[in-house]
Amino acid sequence: MKTVAIIASAGSGTRMAGVCKSKTLMELNGMPVLARTMAVFEKTAIIDEIIVSAKAEDVDTVKALAEKYGISKLTAVAVGGETRQQSVANALALVKDADIIAIHDGARPMIRSEQIESVLEQTALHGAATAACPVYDTVKTADGGGYIASTLDRRVVWTVQTPQCFKLAQYREAMAKAQADGMNFTDDCQLMEYCGKKVKLVDCGDMNMKLTVPRDIEKARALLNEEAMQMRIGHGYDVHKLGENRKLIIGGVDIPYERGLVGHSDADVLVHAVMDALLGAASLGDIGRHFPDSDEKYRGISSLELLCHVNELLKTMGFSVGNIDATLIAQKPKVAPYVLQMRENIAETLGVDVSKVNVKATTEEHLGFTGREEGMAAHAVALIY
Asked: What local confidence, expressed as pLDDT, does residue 220 receive?
């Protein structure tokens, strides 16, 4: 089923009390809010296309953000209307082919891909579904004088979020009826309710917040800072046999020796272990998955070049290298004179200070295949955050 995301970003942001001119274009921890929101939908596999509704003066800015942050799924930017409903309708008019639409607030950058997928799964089953959160506090209604009028049963009270997802045909029918009747709703689920349709509630927790008032900005910044400091640890191990007529490349250093390590690339066993540790920490598989020995473009390639690619993968996921501790296991030759250069090569490739990279070497007292000088092995542990 083809799914198109409509991201509403044409609001006035009047409740921000002058904190910013546009809450979706302001920076949030170094990245514009709208760019963060689009990026989540970009990496959600089930989303095929993104259309943004924006103020007329912001259309070019939105396109520039998409180009800067690699939002390849953006196909159009619609000019927003005077109301949210009209802005969504303008974007809806640009949807050429889809089975389901997912309507999301541009000012909700904390949404997760898995939450989007959950809501879309329920939409496929029920025709309409929305992200929401059950209310845990006791909820009161108030009278005109600011006093409690009644107490609601919190078991049936939810706060509704976005994305709000619908089968396209049903939503277009509801939109047409609302427009024909002169009705204007601030919530897309209300369109379906107005037409007597049911919308499935999907619990997405309370982290999927909308930036509405100034205190929301500080809360979002705190949450992003907390996420940024999450640490991940990975372990890498690699082994290569020694053979004739091969250079011995370890840690990117060409070490004079009578034999070299055998492999599809330059067989740099130390760097391979480092790469596997980094990939493991980020749950990205191993080097065989990313650089298969069946691919001729990797024949003889420098492992430092492959390490650079791994580093770029980490960056796209928002990870930075904390530190690396690696151990080379080899009976011969002595590598102590080259350890500093190895550290510097790895550190430079990863763009970190050399103090964050440690390299050790040990023998196995003539035991095992390394002790018999049949090959070399390496272990590495990496911390990323």
From this structure: 87
Q: CA dist 330 to 58, 214, 309, 363, Å? A: 60, 59, 27, 5
Contact 156, 134 (CB under 8 A): no
Question: What percent of the residues of the chain are helix, what percent strand, and what percent coil, each to the nearest 5?
Answer: 35, 25, 35
Segment 264-273, tens digit of pLDDT: 889 999 999 9
The total number of residues written for the chain in this structure: 385
* Residue of 182, 181, 191, 184 lying closest to 160 (CA atoms): 191
HEC string of 279-328 equals: HHHCCCCCHHHHCCCCCHHHCCCCHHHHHHHHHHHHHHCCCCEEEEEEEE
Beta carbons of 275 and 310 less than 8 angstroms apart: yes
CB-neighbour burial class of residue 151 (10 A; exposed 0-12, middle 13-18, buried 19+) = exposed
Helices 303-316 and 339-350 cross at an angle (nearest 10°) of 40
At 264, which helix (H) or strand (E)?
none
Helices marked H in the chain — which ranges?
A: 33-43, 59-68, 84-92, 113-126, 168-180, 188-194, 214-228, 269-281, 287-290, 303-316, 339-350, 368-371
DSSP state of 186: S
59-72 average pLDDT score: 95
166 neighbors 188 (Cβ within 8 angstroms): yes
Say if pTM beats, i.e. exceeds, 0.70.
Answer: no
